[in-house]
Amino acid sequence: MAFEAVVRIFTEDDAERFANQERVTETAKTVSRTAFRSALALRPPDSDIERFRRIGAWRAETPLDDLVRWREETPDSLAVVSYRVDAGAGSRVERLTYREYAEYVDRFAVALYQLGVRPGEVVALQLPNRWQLNALVLACVRIGAVVAPIMTTIRPRELERVLRWIGASVCVTIDR
After folding, report:
1. Number of domains in the chain
2. PANTHER family annotated for this entry (predicted)?
3. Could you read off the pLDDT of 126-153 as tens digits, one per residue?
4. In 3D, which of 1, 7, 3 has the Cα closest to residue 111?
5. How far are the Cα atoms of 5, 12, 101, 136 from residue 129, in angstroms, in the given order?
6. pLDDT of residue 133
7. What confidence tier does 1 reach under pLDDT thresholds 50, 70, 90?
8. With 60 as the cut, is the pLDDT of residue 93 above it?
9. Which end of the chain, C or N, has fewer beta carbons within 10 A?
């Protein structure tokens, strides 16, 4: 596959180095982490969830459940059609069946897990709008990780700052 990603695990040493470079105070770091963890804990009351499901506003199934069902029921049906124009290489079309797409989601989930990503941990995704981004989001959902999309236009210094602020343990980005 033409998709090549660069993955880097940020350690505590990296976080400390970035904190020193940015001269972030302990209070600011604590407030940011506390605010971020509080946002993760947001959940409506069970009574609201039940009411919204009863009136049909919410489903119990997730897009990941849908993908699993479609892989089982219609494995050879077309799931993704991706058009891509590369400078100098012309354009190309990629087509994936539900079976193939689900296999990528599974492979990405296993790779993230092998990198040490566990439920509740933040995975930063700095990727262009391609089908691999959606597959990685579903992979994060599968292992219970929190997805943090990052714009592809920011430079390395800003990226380091964002990664430190969100507490990402893994950053997936494209190599070119």
Report:
1. 1
2. LONG-CHAIN-FATTY-ACID--COA LIGASE, NONRIBOSOMAL PEPTIDE SYNTHASE PES1 (EUROFUNG)-RELATED
3. 999 899 999 999 999 999 999 999 999 9
4. 7
5. 14, 30, 16, 12
6. 95
7. very low
8. yes
9. C
Is 32 among the domain residues? no
* H-run or E-run covering 67: helix 63-73
| Encoded tokens for 110 | 């296993």
Beta-strand pair 168-174/5-9: antiparallel
In the DSSP assignment, the letter for residue 151 is -
Token digits of residue 108: 């990405």
Domain enclosing residue 19, as ranges: 5-24+61-174
Mean pLDDT over each residue of the chain, to the nearest integer: 81
- Tell me whether residue 138 is exposed, middle or buried, using C-beta atoms within 10 angstroms of its C-beta: 0 to 12, 13 to 18, 19 or more: buried
9 located within any domain: yes
